[in-house]
Write a structure and sequence with these properties.
Oligomer: single chain
Shape: elongated
Radius of gyration: 37 Å
Number of strands: 42
Strand content: 35-45%
Distance between the termini: 75 Å
Largest sheet: 6 strands, antiparallel
Amino acid sequence: MNALPKLACQFARRFLTAVAFAGVFLPPVAHAADTPPTANAVQSVETTTLPGGKVMVRVNLRQALAATPAGFTIGNPPRIALDLPDTGNAMGRNVVEAKLGPLTSVNVVQAGTRTRVVLNLSKAAEYEARVDGNALYVSLGDAGAGLAPVNATPHFAEAGPADARHAIRDVDFRRGAAGEARIVTTLADTQTGINIRQQADGVVVDFVGTSLPKALQRRLDVADFGTPVQTVEAYALGDNARMVVKPKGNWEYSAYQTENSFIVEVKPALDGQKRTADGKVKYVGEKLSLNFQNVEVRSVLQVVADFTGLNIVASDTVTGNLTLRLKDVPWDQALDLIMETKGLDKRQNGNVIWVAPKDELMAKEKQELEAKSAVVDLEPLVTEYIQLNYMRADEAQAMLYGFTSGGFLASAGNNEVNCSAQAQGLGGTAAARAMQRRDQGESDQKILTKRGRATYELKTNTLIISDTARKIQEIRELLARLDAPARQVMIEARVVVAADGWSRDLGARLGFAASKVFSSGLSDPMQLGGETLGAPATGSGQALPLDTAAAAANLSMSLLNLVNGNLLSLELRALEADEKGKVISNPRVMTSNQKPAVILAGQQIPYLKPSTANEPATVEFKDAFLCLLVDPQILNNDAIILTVEVQKDEPRFAPGIEVPAIDTKRIKTQVRVNNGETLVLGGIFDGSEDSTVSKVPLLGDVPVFGNLFKSTTRKNSKTELIIFLTPRIIDERLSLR
């Protein structure tokens, strides 16, 4: 008698689950009685296994499909969906049980004139679809089996001919009822090829052969909508259009296409909702009240199972009694309190919860891990060839062996620059291979398994890996994230020779604070804009170098936070027009992230080295250079940490000494600047003092009266060398293709 209500509840629960599943994967549709007729129909679905552990799904249709249907995959839970246009469901049922390999079941649901075939999987698997006659074949394999390239992205539609152009009409953002984000892209037609993939920081959608109007090339800030998505950016990329969705926190996404609307949904991950921001468990279960006196633990677990509808399996070692009184407590918190009181723990798989003592669970998990480790030691090895695009194969090999630097970097020649007049040369691969042979030992950070090996071939930049299939799949996923082009920085330098005091005037015109720093280290405050300014101002701008005639020469550094370089260029042009100085050099150098570069200009001064008893006189050279060394590091927020070293040499010839002396001024510092911000290096002064006396012999030496017969000329000139350094990050979207 009591079994009938339970069966009715189970039937109702399954019915509601099926309805909810259809509501998630398909938009609202009309009732079955109002379903319009279709030209084609699904007649049956058959499943079978193939050699090699593959699973084949055959969908029998009334007529042959015109092309391979568009499909996409979902990671959590793992599913594969295929859309059949102008096709109905003539099977008389919506679910086909399979339980073959990773395939658990097949759902066939009709919505309007379209039918969606959903393959429910127990784990992620690759698939390949093809049309043969009146049948659609979908073959499934393990993620590492290699049915298709591992980095293959879901294709919602095959791209049309090369001359066919598609267009995007609108990009809209909406917030769902459950707090999920919906990015709706309206397409001009339903045949647009779409590739979607997940990256470390977001979702990237490429519309193949699609034009994007200028009005839609924009970045939407949607952080205020209360969804995981923070920004949505759309821009043109060659002949394609790209949309980048950047969420934050723990999230998961799904995508589907309805007619000419392509929808990407991003919602919080289920695992991310179980903990608060400080790492504590967040209980979200329905509240219940319990009041028991000296009752068995098993009986309390049965009450919780009846309340939640979950299946709770208690181990034979779960014994003992307890007394508890709980009022309006979430059921998941109540279950944790019960287990914590009796030293129990749980493991959940779907809607089944296994409860056992902690020691028993830990011992069982340890046995499972040891068994898996033993299987790995016996698993056959396979060889895989992975061709890299941007990362060097020898660097990737060193990383797999757990070394922090690749062999190419270890060659220690091409990655160092200095202020030498001679070319340094480029590091060769022979040094890299020698370093690899010397250093290839076992490392605690080794990514490969104990039996795994990796080598490379540099001509084709191919990495050759011999390891288990599962480990090779992990390495493929790792390299897919790391094999990305390095960001580049354009560093523009303006070397200016200016009259004394020009830098002070420039600072006043640009509205920056000015402070005079004496050799004693004290600061003389100055008035600017009604405020007393002592030490250099912090923030977007600091004090520019100024006149230090009353003090010893000091090397100084400042920042100019200008929107662009036009204002600075105008000031430098005015400098030359007023004949207060000139721009002696304006070099530009482009370098990759964390790769040093050098800008060098100067002369080599020849001098005669006197002969000795064993050697004849020879001509030797001394270097007198203006050398600028920069090493940029691009941060994730587009700021740049710039390591700068400036050296200014000036020859000085002393009377009676043939070998010239070199006066050197040098500064080395590290500063963080924003993209496009200007770093000012000053305080390098060149001064000269001349005193000339012209007089009449004898008469000019007479005291006092002799001043009438002589003239004294004194000349004092002083110039300052100022270096303006502006780093700009190169936008890869601006590259010509």
